[in-house]
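Can you please make up a whole protein chain along with its backbone structure tokens because I've never seen that pairing?
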Amino acid sequence: MQTDEQERLVQREIERLRNADEAALCALNEDSVQRRTAWFEENKSKFSFLSGDPLDAAYRTLLARFGIPPEEAPITFQDETRIMFHSQNFCPTLEACKRLGLDTRYICKHLNEDATNRLIQLIDPRLRFSRNYDLLRPYSAYCEEMISLEPEA
């Protein structure tokens, strides 16, 4: 059961995605980059974890940005170069795509993967965000997402 706030977010996403072509998705992604960057700059002083492990900092930043409790995006694998987690949280993009009959594999790739990647690179430019598009809702019970730490160039 969705809350009124969640329904408002879904309706906003439906308006953004209705009739959106690749160019529109690119523009929406750039808007997300700007909003996420502004949010990070405004909030980074509150996050003591940013001075620790960059992978953990990136994961915790994503949870904070999207208001996701850790149990809704549990870590399923972690080593010194990668964190994998399974997002099961409420997602207005998922709900909008279901209502509009859009493929989340296409929408999420073009709409918000780059914006999420660029957000975590504000923590450390070696960080990379990606998804397993074979395990993405609604085709799976969760969205399998990864943060990796690339070696220094």
Summary: Residues 84 and 146 are 4 Å apart (CA to CA). The mean pLDDT is 95.
